[in-house]
Amino acid sequence: MHRKAENFSSWYSEVLLKAELIDYYDISGCYILRPWAFSMWEVVQQDLDKRIKSMGVKNCYFPLFVSEGALNAEKEHVEGFTPEVAWVTRSGSSNLTSPIAIRPTSETVIYPYMSKWIRSHRDLPLKINQWCNVIRWEFKHPTPFLRTREFLWQEGHTAHEKEEAARAEVLEVLDMYADVYKDLLAVPVIKGEKTRREKFAGADYTMSTEAFIPATGRGIQAATSHGLGQNFAKIFKIEFENESSQKCQVWQNCWGFTTRSLGIMIMLHGDDQGLVIPPRVAPVQVVLIPIMQEDCNAEQMKSDLVRMEEELKSRSVRTVIDDSSSRTPGWKYNHWEMKGVPLRLEYGPKDMQAGSVRLVRRDNRAKFDVSVEQLGEQVEKILQDIQQSLYESALRVQEEQTRKVTGLEEFMEAIGKGMMAVAPSCNREACEEAVEQETDAMLGSLKALCIPSQQDEVAEGTRCFACDQPATCHILWGKSY
């Protein structure tokens, strides 16, 4: 197997296949999510769904297809997606009278119906969400989980009476996404606002969470929350009568979290032995492996393991006993390490005599001998520590690989070393475009990732690192997926 630090692309492809996360499909850019991957998505989905519902959002489902007229209703929006839209033009042997698009996102699918459902201020806020797939016919290098022509996500769409309520929700959703990355995937993210050049097509502004992959020195957009203002409300006539019987347009948001999150987790935590899965999202948190010898009581050993498993399951620990006789313990160790199971339990004849088990952590390979009586309590503590350690380690590296710069020379040096750079900026689109063009030959894929929400105040007299005009903010830059 390739080493992660030496050939990241090959390492990533091998891990996905050998850990049985995906299989390749006969249509380029489309991939099969095997049970090991999909079960992780289910954990994320169930957790995030509870958080979304706690905000008063209700789930629904809209059709996959979009009429040409609806898709073209918002000029800026459709222009942002035109290169990626897939069209249905035939039915059987007949051409369709009008082509039908397959949703790349659902604003133009949902908002005509919001205009029917909203009549009065009493109908607001309207908050809906759907879990579905979308199709974006990516022509850039397809990469499983990161850039795929079909992916799974949730997309929330809300309408509000007041702008203040809409703005508050954008930030609430952003915090929710950051918490999911931290709490489940042990991934630290940087929250901030996208520049005008990078915002969602048709939105007033876009807030995002940005992650960092140290092995490649690249940032990656993790999840987004968009303030749409009244742009779509004007186009689709989403109006309500306020308490003074005046006609008003709603304030809208949309926000989404995708299966890209699994790719970020895999790339960040994986090592040369395969996956390293944070316990809270792991399909199996503990694998129990018997070490059989000729003179041991095999039936007693299996019975003991079943009792241990029952104890762990009573504490809601996800387990599996690998007692297959066709594989050696060493083969099993390698197999479950490749699949990233957080904790391995080994149980042999000496352990039976001592009334103990050997526990081995996947993240740092630390080994512990634990008495059977204390097994449940110790496993819970170790799993919690693995979760926390993975996050803290990733956060420490992210902070070490983020450099504050003031001038172009420092900026180029930091990006060239695979870091992210925080630089004072005039925040003009022309300046941002010039930086990308001027550095493309040397750095490539350079992008303004976001304007971090948490940043130092810009001191009076500070100049833009790129054009020497007065700086208005600090921008986080980096190579990007």
In whole angstroms, the N-to-C terminal distance is: 24 Å
Q: What integer value in Å does the Rg equal?
A: 26 Å
| Order of strands across the main sheet | 9-10-11-23-22
CATH topology-level fold name of the largest domain: BirA Bifunctional Protein, domain 2
Give the CATH level 1 class of the largest domain: Alpha Beta
Q: In total, how many domains does the architecture comprise?
A: 3
Q: Topology, pairings included?
A:
Elements lengths: L7 H11 L3 E3 L6 E3 L1 H20 L3 E2 L5 E3 H4 L3 H7 L4 E6 L2 E9 L4 H11 L8 E10 L14 E11 L2 H21 L6 E4 L11 E9 L4 E12 L1 H6 L2 E3 L5 E3 L1 E8 L1 H10 L16 E5 L7 H17 L4 E3 L7 H10 L4 E5 L1 H6 L1 E6 L5 E5 L3 H26 L1 E3 L3 H9 L3 E6 L3 H11 L6 E7 L20 E8 L1
Parallel strand pairs: 3-7, 11-23, 15-16, 15-17, 20-21
Antiparallel strand pairs: 1-2, 4-6, 5-6, 7-8, 8-14, 9-10, 9-22, 10-11, 11-14, 12-13, 17-18, 18-19, 21-23, 22-23
Describe the structure.
- The structure is a single chain.
- The two termini are 24 Å apart.
- The protein has a five-stranded mixed beta barrel. It has a five-stranded mixed beta sheet with strand order 16-15-17-18-19, sandwiched between helices.
- It folds into three domains: 8-269, Bira Bifunctional Protein, Domain 2 (BirA Bifunctional Protein, domain 2, 2-Layer Sandwich); 279-386, Anticodon-binding domain (Rossmann fold); 402-480, Translation Initiation Factor IF3 (2-Layer Sandwich), CATH 3.30.110.30.
- The model has no long low-confidence stretch (mean pLDDT 95).
- With 481 residues, the protein is an alpha+beta fold.
- Strand 5 (86-91) and strand 6 form a beta hairpin.
- The protein is built from 14 helices and 23 strands.
